[in-house]
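Chain X:
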Amino acid sequence: MPYFSYKAINEQGVMVRGSIEHSDIDHAYDNISDSGLHIVKLQKSDSLTGLYLKKASSWSIKPKDVIEFAKNLSVMQRAGLPLLQSIIDIAESAENRHFREKLLNIRRTIELGSGFSEALARHKDVFPDIFINLIAVGEETGRISESLSDVALHLQRMEDLKSAIIRALMYPAFALIGTTGALMFWLIYVLPKMSELFKTMAIDLPPMTQALIAASDFTSSKWYVFILVPVIVCIVLKLLSKYESTKYYLDMAKLRLPIVKLIMSNKLLALFSEQLRILISAGVTIDRSLDITLTTMDNAVFRKAIANIKEDILLGSNISDAIKKHDTLFPNLVVRMISIGESTGNLTEQLNFLSEYFLKKLDDVSEKMGKMIEPIIIIVIGGMFVVIILGLLAPIYNLVSRMGS
C-alpha cells in the first residue's frame, strides 16, 4: 500500500507532521481525522520515500509491541468487547506512533468488510505468518481470544529463544573481537617500534623475530585486508546460502561444528516443538502444521527432514516413527515424548514440554558458554603473547650474550 505524508493540527493547536500507509487518499484522510487531527495538507509520497517509510516503520515496531497487542486484545475479547472497539482502545494507548497507525489501518480495513486475519495479512512486515494463520483458525472456530492468547505465549517464547541465542553468542563475539584487537595493536603500533630498534643494533635476528617483523610490516601496510576478507567471506556465504544446494551443506556444517552445533541444534529443536505445539493446539492438521513449521525453519537440513516426515505421515506412518528416521537431528527424547503424546492423546502437552526443555537447555548453554570457551581463549591469547615475547627477547638475549663475550 502507498504512503501519504500529512501536516495536521492536533487538539492542543500544535502543527504535527507524519505519514500513514493506506490503500487510497480518502481512507488515509478518514484515518487521520479519526485520530483527532485536523488535516492541513495531505499528499501521496513517491515510491522511494514510501519504501523507506515502510522499512522505517516496521523496524521501529518491536516484537514486544505485537506481544502486548495480542495479550490485551485476548483479554478484551474474552471480556466480550467488540473487536473494532478493542483495537481502537489499544491503538489510543499505544506508545509507538507507527504501531498505532498500523492498528488504525487494520481497524479501517475491517470496517470495509475484511476479516481480522485478512486485515493483518496486509501488514506482514509487522505480524508474522504464525500470527495471521492462528487468527484465521480462531475466526473459523470462534476461538479468537484463545488464539490471541496462544499467539502471545508463542511470540514471547520466540523472543526468549532469540535472547538465549544472543546471550550464547555474546561472549564468543566479545572474546574474538578483544583478541583480534589486541593482536592488531601489537602488530601495528608496538612491533614496528621494536623492529626499528633491532635494525639499529645491526644483529642477526632469529627466524621467529623475522617472522614477527614481516607480519607487522604486512599488517601495517595492508591493514585493510583484515577488514575486506571477513566482509568478502560474509558476502560469499550470503550468496551461497541463496542456493538450496549449497545452503544445505553450509547448514550441515553449522550442525557439526563443536560449539555452534550446541546452539543451532537446541534452537531448531525448540522452534520445531513450539511451532508444532501452537499449530496443533489451534486445531491445524498435522500436515498443514508441518508445512507452516517448514517455512519458519532457517536450516535447510531440518527443512528437508520435516518435508520427509510429512511425506511419511501422509503415507500412514505415526509422527514418532517418521521422526525416528532422522535420529541424527532429533534425539531419542523427542521421539519418545511425541510417541507418548500420540498414544495418550495429549500431544500438545508433550510438545510444550519439549519446547520448554530445549529453551532451558539453550539457556544453560548460554550460561556455560563462557566457561566452555574461556580455556580456549586463554590458550590462544597465551600462545600469541608467548610467541611475541620470545620473538622480542631473543634478539636482546643474543645482543647481551655478544656483549658479554
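Chain Y:
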Amino acid sequence: MSATDTAARLPDEQRIVMTAVGLTSPNGNDLETFRANLLEQRSGVQNYEIRYVGKTLAGICDFPSTQYQSKKDVRRGTRAGAVGIWAANEAVRRSGLEWDNVDKSRVGIYVGVTEHGNVETENEIYQIKGFDYDTQFWSHHHNPRTVANNPAGEVALNMGVTGPHYTIGAACAAGNAGIVQGVQMLRLNECDIAIAGGVSESIHTFGIFASFKSQGALASHEDPTKACRPFDRDRNGIVVSEGACLYILERLSDAKARNAPIIAEIVSYAINTDATDFVLPNPERQAQCVELALKRAGLSASDIDIVSTHATGTSSGDSQECIALRNVFADSPSTHFNNTKSFIGHAMGAAGALELAGNLPSFQDKVVHATINLDNLDPDCALRGLVSNQPREVDRVKYILNNSFGMLGINSVLIVRPV
C-alpha cells in the first residue's frame, strides 16, 4: 500500500469495495472464462450480418438468457435488459449475499449505457413498414422498452429491487461512470448495496454500424479475430460489440461484517470533459482526468502498475490517448499498459466495466494480459511498458488504473487496489 493512499485513511464506512462481478462478454460469461481467454490470446470477434449494412464483424455474447428470465419476459424486454439481468443475477450469486434476506429498498442499481432505444425503434419501424405504416401494428411495449432508464429498470423488476434505479448516459465512458455513481450513492448512505457497471446492446442497431462505416471508422479484416488492432499501424477502425458487466459494491465495513469475498477497493475516480470536439479526443483533457484521479488518491504515476487503455483501434483515437499517457507516465518505467478491446471489440457502455474486470485477477496472479493483434506498432502509439501479444509476469500489482473515454469528449478514470 502506498504511504500516501488517501482511501486507506478513510473510515471503513466510507471505503467502497467490489465484492462480486457478473458479466457476459464475446469471449466468456464469467470472470474466470473471460480471464482465461485473455491470457490465452483468444478473441471473441466473429462474422456478423445486419440489415442494410450487410456483412460485417462484431463481438457477440452467448449466454443462457432464460436462466434468470422467462421466455415471455425475454420477448417483452430488451437485449440491454437481458444482458443486464444476467450480469446482475450472476453478481449476486457470486457475492455470498443472502439475497432473500436483503432489504431491497436499500439496494441501488446504476447502469451505464452508451445509447438505448435505437434497437427497438429501428426494429419497429422496419416491421411497420410491412403494414404500410399502420400504427395499429406498432408494439405497445415500445415506450417501456425505449425509456432511458430501461436497462436498470428491467434489472430492478427482475430482482425485486425497490431502491433507486437509473441509467447513466456517458457514451463509452459509461461503464466507469456507473461504478462511480454506485460509489457516490454508498458514501451518501442512499443505499447499502450498489449493483453498478455498464451494459451494451449496440450490435443490434444497424445505425451504429452505418455511422462508423460512413465515418471510415468501422473495422474490417478477412480474419475476424484480427480485426480489432489497437495501436497497430494497420488498424482500420472499431469492432462493435455487446456485453454487460455489473459489480456488487459495498462499504468495507459491511463487507467485513459478513465476511464477504473482496475483489478490490475503489481508491479513486475522475470524470471530466474535453469540450473541444464531437468525436476527436483531446489528449490534454484526458491527461488531466488521469492526473485528477491520481491526485485524489494521493498517488503518483509510478504507483500505478497496470493501465487498462481505452484505445478502440481508430487512427486518431489511439494516438491521442497515447499522447496523454506518455505525458502522465513519462517518469514511470514500472507501469504496464494493455488493451482488452483487441480481444472483444468495443462493448460501448459496458466497455470500461468489462475491461477493468479482465485486469482484476492480476492482483492475485501477477500477470498482465497482452494487447493482441499488435504486429506492427504505430510509432505514434509507442508506450514504454506496452504489453503486446504475450502476457507478462510482473513482480508487483498494487494499483490498476482504468481509462474509459467517449464521444462528446467525456473522459473517465478509475483506480482500484486489493484490500
